[in-house]
Design brief:
Layout: H1 2-15, H2 21-37, H3 44-57, H4 60-63, H5 68-85, H6 93-107, H7 118-131, H8 136-139, H9 143-156, H10 163-179, H11 185-192, H12 204-216, H13 218-234, H14 246-256, H15 265-272, H16 277-291, H17 303-311, H18 318-334, H19 341-351, H20 357-373, H21 380-387, H22 395-415, H23 424-431, H24 439-449, H25 458-469, H26 474-503, H27 509-524, H28 530-541, H29 546-555, H30 562-576, H31 583-592, H32 600-616, H33 619-635, H34 644-651, H35 656-669, H36 674-677, H37 680-694, H38 697-710, H39 716-732, H40 736-749, H41 751-755, H42 758-770, H43 789-804, H44 817-830, H45 841-862, H46 868-875, H47 883-898, H48 918-933, H49 943-955, H50 973-983, H51 1000-1014, E1 1016-1018, H52 1025-1042, E2 1063-1065, H53 1069-1157, H54 1166-1173, E3 1176-1177, E4 1183-1184, H55 1188-1197, H56 1205-1219, H57 1240-1243, H58 1269-1275, E5 1305-1306, E6 1311-1312, H59 1318-1327, E7 1386-1391, E8 1396-1406, E9 1411-1416, E10 1421-1424, E11 1431-1433, H60 1467-1473, H61 1478-1484, H62 1488-1512, H63 1517-1525, H64 1530-1540, H65 1555-1558, H66 1561-1578, H67 1605-1618
Antiparallel strand pairs: 1-2, 3-4, 5-6, 7-8, 7-11, 8-9, 9-10
Length: 1619
């Protein structure tokens, strides 16, 4: 070796500068080989022999040689030299630097693995990595070279490299990082720049290498990475120098060294909560990807941000929520059993209820995908939450949910993982048949295509169905039956259609089309869009392809299996092609009419399964097998052909349940398997006859029907023989229940056979069973389940009689139904067929229930024969003392009505129950809702149809109070509750689902029915008609509460014909008399017409010449006036149109008001309606009435909110109406109530806010008529020869006639009579002068009433009459003002009935109803639409420059001078206050603080006007004329004269405080007393007006707003002159 080294060294010294490359390569190759074979740290002699080679190999000529092969050999030699001499450095620093440069350049050739020199390069890499010679680079501070080497490694690394190569690179890089004192930013950037997913310029091997390096030296590199990443996250990405995505860096670092990122969590949390949507989305995606990494457990430090990440599922942005759900799916798919799985699944469950449809759908998708992959990872409860989306409001989501549930169930059927049971999924899907949006077709497609695995064998499929049927409820079974029923109907129609085509194929096409029209229409009804399906069928009929018709014929053949059906369907669709228009139609048709759910193979396996379950002793699964057979017998009887022997074999079984099931199958499919029975038919007949005599009732029923089915003559022959045996058996009384059942079934199926001995059967049942008594004695039973055997026998007898009148065919030909109904009526009344028959109360209750059921069964064919009193008795079964009877009866009613086999009028039974148990009421309320609201587009029940029967039943009910005798509104609360519960079921929202308002058409129809009833009389008992009218009033009030718009109540009535058995129209005598008079007048008119015609003919000739002359003149004038006339005509037409529209509206309301007023009762009174308005109606129809105090306290306590003014006034009004005593005679004075009864109505001036009032019976006027002095006194309730009398405040209700009137306001032991309303009085006097001669005395005065202290009752404040909106619309001056700006303004509203304006303040405005709340000065509160009323501003009185007349009446707006001025220190007030108690005084007077403020406001305005007048020398003479004109009538002139002495020169000034007015009370009081007698002599009206202020205190009197403008101006003028 020594010699060889010397030789190689010598040669190299001679050749290193040579140009002979080949020779140099050979020498270098020898040198590399020798060095490779040498061990590390050789002997000294060897080292000395190496010296020439060591020195020559590092010559610059070799280290920087241009040839790559030479450089590689030099690198290999120097690499080995560094290995041999290690740990000593063989060269100085500069040489070593050049060597390391050579190494790095050598590594760059590692990229090409197919290069011949690749192995030598790998050797160099391996030696450098193994002996760590590269560490010297750090000592030499070759930082740039280190960076270059890192770049080289990342650039050349490849997936093709062996693990040795990548491990060497990883070692070199990791050691360099570990040995570095500080990692430079440049080096860190180089490493991090190769991190990140989906980078086009970076291969995955480089990314993996970088991640391995970071993971290996994580502790060393952690501070640098933290600093860099935090810096990158803090600055904007666009401004980043290195353009490195921090999120991608974080993802890769989390994958290899998650502990490095512990300090970065707060920054990620900040980004997760940022307002920047793009950054928030990016952070959500990053975190989702981190948590979804497979095999990576979420560190403890990341748990807080994991929780925050889950919270982003409720982010306000849909995209963010969607991203969270997508990443939750990745998390669960990567590791379904991870520790965080429950939290993730919980978030998915919450998002199922998200407001956004796409999020709900994504949640369903994620749960379904995860469950399909790993069913055990999702709990059954979560899957059930998914199933609730079948009731989602989105149709697309409903369908998608159904598809995904079928995927889950199909997965479970194949894998059967875990103990969870998913057999409830098919039932959920089946119930969607009743969904109007999904419909039967969607469910059918799922059931036929995707619910069950295709891989399942027929036996497995049978086992699944048997298991399902053991868990199905009635609703789910019914849904399956609907699908099979449609399949049966379509199959029969398709077969018929194909046979018609074959029959008429050679005939004309038009003839075939005529024959198949009905068939096509029937088939089209089995599709979602019948119209389109009909068009497609017609297009299909034009097809001449024989293969299509062949396939369709085979599909409807019952012998075709489900597998064959699938292949045939695929063949059909392949023939048609996807591009053909009929592709989708034929796809649906071939699926719907094929036997893909059940086929013949399924039936055979089902019989085998029945035997297996029977032998295993599983009664539940055996019954399931039989139930499936029964359904197949009903809807696919042809599938049972060929199993006749098996059925007969099962019929011989001792198990009664099996025998019953087989009998049911034979009864349904007997005609289909009749031909295949053959010789076994006779033996089967004998078996069936024996069962009819000896079996139980259910077996006997099926046996009779089986006999009729399996015989060719519909059982007439065999049933005749059986019938004779049964009749003979009656006398022996053996097994009577079954015998009676058999007789009833024979009566139904073979009526001619039954009629041969009908009288014998009926007499036996009536005399030997129904008339039998059973004495109970002391051992009478009281439990519902303890009915006697005799009672059961009576019920069976009744059923037999009922069935005899419900034959399968020709029920209308039966006679004698009246006698049966009479028997049922007796039983409904007394519990037995006769009063003489004795039995227990339990037996009677059972018999009543049986009779009620019999009536509702008979009503299907004999409804016209059932009297109305029997109908009422039947309804009252719902009030039975036994709740079981009520429940059974109502369930039967619900079932029959839902099946459309019972008249909807029987729904009244749900509303006659007086049960107080809330749980029972809630259940019945739900049942009622189900009947009414689940009928879809074709409702079963219409309110307008049921209402007449319901009102009639309630009016005739024993609990209904007599409207003439009972005047307590509380007694009608139960009826009100029932009516509200019924009508509230018909409210609908915009989407057709339950809402809060009735539809407009429903309101019209309901009100039309109610008005028709009020125009009719009760046919059964005319004395009960008034009760019906009263109930109609309640219905109208409820309709108003449920009406979205009150204008809907005034829609024109529809023509409604009421049931003749209930009501008859009222015939008016006046109409008959008028008709006679009209005929007489017609004859007289004819005679006069003849005479006039003769005269006209004589005058025609004389007039012709004159007409010609006049026409010529007129034509000349017409030409000039045409243009002007046209303009005027257009204006007139517009005005006339407006008037006609207004008139129509007024006439419509007046007509309706007139109709409503007919048959009106006291329940229409506003106080009675206010009582019902105050009731709190709960969801189940219960009515709760609370005291006003409790309500107020409760409302105030809730959230510390104050009660609204309207609500408080309404409740106080209702409390007052309840507290008021009932007065039968209107002329009788009110009774003094006890001291503890506080009249809240009196205290608050009896607030009126009811909007459902009907118009008063008196006609309204326009307020411009002439009113005589006597009429005025009558209007004020004052008589010339009577003392002061209390005038009652008129009720708003139109039913004033014959009703009680509250004449006094009660508050304490004494009657307290308040003063008459000055505003109302002055309004009458100012606006109305006289009345017509035929003016009716609307309000007669009553006798005066003395208090206990023998004090005369003072004048009461007269109540203004009810204002009828719409009779006097608008003001003469159009005031354009924003509705909201009216709030707080003082206005005067015109009341047509009183012909007066009344003052008030606009309190509030409702934007929705566009109505204002007006609080009158006399305490009344009213809700008005001011756009439709006549009103004016009170403030206008203080603005004389803008004052206009609002009426054509000659009376001035200023009012007459008789209106006495009020002051703050009113002497009248002092006088009244001295005579009443403090509490009563508060109630009797008008609110002083409010009036005082108004007065002050008026003073300030008048003072301003005074200053203006004095400064500008305004002439008040012209204004004074206006004021004087208002006193033109005699009364006014007298008052002017009498009051002139009191009108002295006054000094006007504003009132500084209340005390200034109160100091003069004594003086005013004296002046009032001194003038009282004189005022009584001069005018009767002085009793109700205030005394004028004396001259002594006139200078300080207060001026109020309601002082007439003319009087005020006069006083100002006098004051100015006095100054």
């Amino acid at each position: 070796m020594v010699k060889l080294l010397k030789e190689v060294g010598s040669k190299l010294q001679n050749l290193y500068a040579s140009t002979d490359k080949d020779a140099l390569i050979n020498v270098l190759t020898q040198a590399a080989t020798c060095l490779t074979e040498m061990d590390q740290s050789p002997p000294k002699t060897v080292m000395e022999s190496m010296q020439p080679l060591l020195k020559t190999i590092v010559k610059p000529e070799l280290l920087k040689h241009q040839d790559e092969q030479v450089k590689l050999l030099v690198a290999s030699c120097t690499c080995e030299i560094t290995r041999i001499t290690a740990p000593e450095a063989p060269y100085d620093d500069d040489v070593l630097k050049d060597i390391f440069h050579l190494f790095v350049s050598t590594f760059s050739g590692l990229k090409d693995t197919k290069d011949p020199s690749f192995e030598r390069r790998v050797n160099v890499l391996d030696v450098v990595a193994k002996y760590r010679s590269f560490v010297v680079m750090l000592d030499l501070e070759c930082d740039d070279l280190v960076n270059e080497m890192f770049k080289t490694f990342f650039a050349v690394v490849s997936d093709e490299h062996t693990e040795t190569v990548t491990l060497a690179m990883e070692t070199i890089m990791a050691v360099l990082l570990e040995e570095s004192e500080e990692i430079g930013e440049d080096l860190l950037v180089i490493i991090l720049s190769f991190l990140g997913r989906d980078k086009k310029d970076i291969n995955t091997a480089a990314r993996k290498l970088a991640m391995k390096v970071i993971g290996q030296c994580s502790e060393i590199i952690e501070p640098s990475i933290k600093k860099f990443v935090i810096s990158s996250m803090s600055e904007d990405e666009s401004s980043s120098i290195h353009q490195i995505d921090s999120h991608e860096v974080i993802y890769d670092i989390y994958s290899c060294a998650p502990q490095i990122l512990s300090d970065i969590v707060p920054y990620l949390t900040k980004e997760l909560l940022t307002d920047k949507l793009e950054l928030r989305l990016k952070t959500v995606k990053l975190l989702g990807d981190l948590f979804a990494l497979p095999g990576v457990t979420i560190p403890q430090t990341f748990h807080p941000i994991f929780t925050e990440f889950l919270k982003r599922s409720t982010d306000s942005i849909v995209e963010v929520r969607m991203s969270v759900l997508e990443h939750i799916k990745l998390c669960l798919v990567s590791d379904p059993i991870r520790e965080e799985a429950p939290k993730l699944v919980s978030v998915l469950g919450e998002r199922l209820l998200d407001e956004d449809e796409s999020i709900r759908k994504q949640a369903v998708a994620v749960i379904s995908d995860v469950a399909s992959r790993e069913l055990s990872s999702i709990s059954t409860d979560t899957i059930k939450l998914v199933s609730e989306r079948l009731q989602d409001k989105s149709l697309l989501l409903k369908k998608y949910t159904m598809e995904r549930l079928s995927d889950i169930y199909r997965t479970w059927c194949l894998k059967k993982i875990g103990d969870d049971d998913y057999d409830w999924i098919p039932g959920k899907i089946l119930t969607c048949v009743y969904d109007n949006d999904l419909g039967l077709d969607t469910v059918e497609q799922i059931l036929r295509t995707s619910l069950f695995p295709v891989e399942c064998s027929v036996r497995d499929k049978v086992k699944i169905w048997v298991r399902l049927f053991s868990k199905f409820d009635k609703t789910e079974v019914k849904a399956l039956e609907k699908i099979l029923e449609q399949q049966q109907r379509l199959q029969l129609e398709v077969q018929k259609y194909i046979s018609l085509r074959e029959m008429y194929k050679d005939n004309d096409t038009s003839e075939l089309q005529k024959k198949t029209t009905v068939c096509i229409r029937s088939m089209s009804q089995c599709f979602i869009d019948p119209a389109k399906a009909e068009t497609d069928f017609q297009a299909l009929g034009q097809s001449k392809d024989a293969n299509i018709w062949r396939i369709l014929t085979t599909l409807v053949d019952p012998s075709t299996s489900s597998l064959q059906s699938r292949s045939l369907r695929d063949e059909l669709l392949k023939i048609v092609g996807e591009k053909e228009p009929l592709y989708l139609f034929l796809s649906s048709l071939s699926l719907k009419c094929s036997y893909t759910i059940f086929d013949k193979e399924f039936v055979k396996e089902l019989l085998i399964e029945t035997d297996l379950q029977k032998s295993d002793g599983s009664k539940l699964l055996t019954q399931s097998c039989l139930n499936i057979l029964v359904i197949l017998a009903c809807f696919s009887p042809l599938l049972l052909s060929g199993i006749e022997e098996n059925l007969v074999h099962l019929l011989e079984d001792d198990d009664e349940a099996i025998k019953e099931g087989v009998l049911h199958v034979l009864a349904k499919a007997g005609d289909a398997i009749r031909e295949q029975l053959g010789e076994s038919s006779s033996s089967l007949d004998l078996m069936l006859e024996r069962i009819c005599l000896e079996g139980n009732r259910r077996q006997a029923k099926y046996a009779v029907h089986s006999l009729a089915a399996i015989t060719k003559d519909e059982g007439l022959k065999s049933l005749s023989v059986l019938y004779k045996r049964l009749v003979d058996t009656l006398e022996k009384r053996t097994n009577l229940p079954s015998v009676l059942q058999s007789l009833g079934c024979i009566a139904q199926t073979a009526t001619p056979v039954f009629e041969t001995q009908e009288s014998k059967v009926v007499n036996f049942i009536t005399n030997e069973i129904l008339r039998c008594s059973q004495k109970t004695g002391a051992n009478e039973k009281h439990s519902w389940d303890e009915r006697s055997e005799l009672c059961s026998l009576k019920i069976f007898g009744l059923k037999t009689l009922v069935k005899s009148y419900l034959p399968v065919k020709d029920a209308h030909l039966r006679v004698g139904i009246d006698e049966l109904i009479k028997h049922l009526q007796y039983i409904l009344s007394f519990g037995e067929i006769s009063k003489d028959v004795e039995s227990s109360s339990v037996d009677k209750a059972h018999l009543k229930l049986a009779s009620a059921k019999a009536i509702i069964r008979l009503s299907k064919h004999w409804d016209k024969k059932i009297p109305i009193d029997v109908f009422h008795l039947t309804l009252r079964i719902s009030e039975a003392e036994f709740p079981q009877a009520r429940k059974l009866f109502l369930n039967k009613v619900r079932q029959y009505i839902s099946d459309r086999s019972l008249d909807p009028k029987y729904v009244c039974a749900f509303l006659l129950n007086s049960e107080s148990d809330n749980s029972i009421l809630e259940e019945e309320n739900r049942n009622l809702s189900d009947i009414i609201q689940t009928s879809g587009t074709s409702p079963v029940i219409h309110a307008e149809y049921v209402l007449p029967y319901l009102i009639h039943a309630l009016a005739h009910h024993p609990s209904c109070p007599n409207i003439d005798e009972c005047k307590d509104a509380k007694a009608y609360e139960p009826i009100y509750r029932k009516l509200y519960m019924f009508l509230s079921k018909f409210v609908h929202g915009d989407d057709g689902k339950p809402g809060i308002c009735l539809k407009r058409e429903d309101i019209t129809s309901i009100t039309s029915v109610l008005r028709s009833i009020k125009k009719s009389v009760d046919v059964v008992d005319t004395n009960v008609s008034k009760n019906s009218y009263a109930i109609c009033e309640l219905c109208l009030h409820i309709t108003k509460r449920l009406a979205p718009k009150q204008d809907d109540l005034y829609e024109p009535s529809l023509s409604v014909s009421l049931p003749d058995a209930l009501y008859a129209p009222i015939k008016k005598k006046e109409d008959n008399n008028e008709d006679d008079k009209k005929e007489e007048h017609k004859e007289d008119d004819k005679k006069e017409e003849h005479k006039e015609d003769d005269k006209k003919e004589e005058n025609k000739e004389d007039d012709k010449t004159e007409e010609i002359k006049e026409d010529n003149k007129k034509n000349e004038i017409k030409e000039d006036d045409k243009k002007e006339d046209n303009k005027e005509d257009e204006k007139k037409k517009e005005i006339e149109k407006d008037k006609e529209e207004e008139k129509k509206e007024d006439d419509k309301k007046a007509e309706i008001d007139t109709e409503v007023s007919e048959g009106q009762t006291w329940l229409a009174d506003e106080n009675a309606l206010a009582h019902f308005e105050s009731l709190i109606l709960e969801a189940n129809g219960m009515v709760t009435s609370k005291t006003i105090e409790d309500d107020i306290m409760q409302d105030i306590e809730i959230d510390g909110k104050e009660m609204s003014l309207g609500k408080m006034l309404q409740r106080i009004k209702a409390k007052g109406s309840k507290a008021r005593k009932i007065v039968n005679n209107g002329s009788t004075p009110a009774v003094v109530e006890p001291e503890n009864n506080v009249d809240i109505l009196g205290m608050l001036k009896e607030i009126n806010s009811d909007n459902l009032d009907v118009p008063n019976k008196f006609d309204s006027s326009n307020g411009h008529g002439k009113i005589s002095m006597e009429a005025k006194l009558k209007r004020k309730g004052i008589s010339n020869d009577l003392p002061t009398v209390p005038v009652p405040k008129r009720q708003r209700s139109s039913s004033a006639k014959g009703q009680k009137r509250s004449s006094f306001l009660k508050g304490g032991p004494d009657f307290i009579v308040t003063k008459m309303d000055e505003d109302a009085q002055s309004g009458l006097e100012d606006k109305v002068k006289s009345t017509n001669s035929d003016e009716v005395d609307l309000e007669k005065p009553k006798k005066s009433v003395k208090t206990e202290n023998n004090q005369k009752s003072g004048p009461v404040r007269k109540r203004k009459r009810r204002r009828i909106s719409g009779l006097a619309k608008g003001t003469s001056e159009e005031i354009v003002l924003n509705n909201k700006n009216l709030v707080g303004r003082h206005i005067r509203v015109w009341w047509p009935m009183d012909k007066a304006f009344y003052k008030g303040v606009v309190k509030s405005y409702d934007h929705q109803t566009e109505k204002h709340v007006v609080s009158y000065d006399d305490g009344d509160v009213e809700v008005l639409c001011l756009d439709k009323e006549r009103w004016e501003f009170v403030e206008d009185e203080h603005k004389p420059a803008k004052r206009k007349r609002l009426s054509n009446s000659p009376s001035s707006k200023g009012g007459s001078s008789k209106k006495i001025i009020k002051s703050a220190g009113s002497s009248k007030h002092t006088k009244e206050s001295s005579n009443i108690s403090p509490s009563s005084a508060v109630r009797g007077k008008r609110t002083p603080r409010k009036n005082l403020k108004q007065g002050q406001k008026g003073v300030s305005q008048r003072a301003a006007y005074l200053e203006m007048g004095s400064s500008k020398n305004i002439d008040f003479d012209t204004e004074m004329k206006d004021a004087e004109s208002s006193s033109s009538d005699p009364v006014s002139s007298q008052e002017n004269k009498s009051g002139s002495g009191h009108k002295q020169t006054e000094k006007f000034d504003t009132i500084s405080n209340e005390g200034s007015g109160s100091n003069k009370n004594s003086e005013s009081h004296k002046a009032d007393e001194s003038d009282s007698e004189e005022n009584q002599e001069n005018s009767a009206e002085s009793r109700s007006t205030d005394a004028a202020p004396t001259p002594n205190d006139s200078d300080k009197s207060e001026f109020v707003d309601d002082e007439p403008l003319g009087v005020w101006k006069s006083r100002i003028r006098k004051t100015v002159k006095g100054k």
